Amino acid sequence: MEFGTYISLAIYFLIMLGIGLYAFKTNEDSASGYMLGGRKLSAPVTALSAGASDMSGWMLMGVPDAMYVTGASSLWIAFGLTLGAWINYLVVAPRLRVFTEVANDSITLPDYFENRFLDKTRMLRVIASIVIILFFTLYTSSGVVAGGKLFESSFGLSFELGVFITAGVVVTYTFFGGFTAVSITDFVQGCIMFVALVLVPSVVVFELGGINQTLDSVATINPDLLSLMIDASTGETLGFVAIISLLSWGLGYFGQPHIIVRFMAISSVKQIPAARRIGMTWMIVALIGAAMTGIFGLAYMTSQGIPLDDPETIFIVLSQLLFNPLISGFLLAAILAAIMSTISSQLLVTSSSLTRDVYTCFINKEASDSKQVMVGRICVIVVAVAAIGMALGENKTILSLVSNAWAGFGAAFGPLVIISLLWDKMTKESAIAGMLAGTITVLIWIFVPIDESGAALSSYIYEIIPGFIVSAAVIVIMSITRPSKDSEASEISALFNEFTHRYKTDS
Hints:
GO terms for molecular function: L-proline transmembrane transporter activity; proline:sodium symporter activity; sodium ion binding. Belongs to the sodium:solute symporter (SSF) (TC 2.A.21) family. Catalyzes the sodium-dependent uptake of extracellular L-proline. By secondary structure, the protein is mainly alpha-helical. The protein has one domain (about 30-390): Sodium/glucose cotransporter, CATH 1.20.1730. It is built from 19 helices and 2 strands. It has helices at about 5-25, 30-35, 45-70, 75-100, 110-115, 125-155, 160-205, 210-220, 240-245, 255-265, 270-305, 315-320, 325-365, 370-390, 395-405, 405-420, 430-445, 465-480, 485-505, and strands at about 230, 235. The protein has a two-stranded antiparallel ribbon. The radius of gyration is 23 Å and the shape is globular.
């Protein structure tokens, strides 16, 4: 690795740590300040931090890998994600921003669920927080593993050292700066990812002589690579169920705590249309860039006669082949940015849930704001240590669990979030039942074998589809057949009416 590459990465790390220090000095010393940035995020920061924390290393490694191997048929996932993100901005974002403030200034998603349904039993909060803490600890671990592998493959460092470097930088700026630091660093990381995903495929096209020559090169390798309807790796035509499964990735957006928490933190509802325009533009350009990196990268590697053992590394390989060390370091920083932006968001959501939904509810109900901030910082370290332990323990089940966490969160929280924002007749019992039903359905779909080969239902249709449908059906049916008692229904209706009035006023 060239010296210039290390210089670029050192500058990147210093910028991230500097943002953490800035946020530490400017943050409000309150629970809302540390965990939600005092609800002061601007539209650009909201949009890019949501995008960066969403896409993770999947954007720079997963999408190029899928395009490299299967061709344009992988774009169905991108179509589904784009549609889901747009609906999320349109339906969930403005309503959640208002309702979380009306519902006793809710700071976390379990906070909102409890306050929205006036749940004095705290069961709704407890179940939601368990789901968040369990899956996000595993999710964080997968990000730490990705960072370790990046340092191992690109810099020749040990996997263990890479894990500690990745986790150490993220924990430092998250520990001191909280949500503000996480959001601003995500904004910067989103900018880096955007530039990198425009730059790499553009240079590849230039090297191959233009877009027409590049497409001809791809078609020469395999014409199926340019077809939306054919999986180029197998030559099989995609059926209706396969396309619906790929598109259904978009359903996951409505239940991802680390994404929708950005909507809770934006400064006002009036900022959301601007955030939507910025966020969707970023997402569409970045997804196109990632897809083109994979398929155009295949054309370049083939034209140069260079073998590639792992298609996931195509972005890394191109950055080293086509750019000088300083630029190459910047491009590798883009991968780190994708990984670290997601780790920091998940780390903060998990520590916030531990603080608000466990500590202040069951250990110290009278905890002051400063004490909650201190506990939140301690929880950041605790979750990070647990994630590092899992990463170093080589627990192979982590990767399989994390690969399905998107579906798990989408099915458990997606219908609950949407219906709670749109329907005043929804009950807390139906919320609990729907959350459990969605989670259990996803787990059955993933882990229960249905034939002699041991294949699970998820090999036939993506588990978020049945999970989402079952969860939504349970919520609606239970709310209709077992409505709340009159006194409770009246209170919930009054809260919903207050939200509706405030939403119309603020919009």
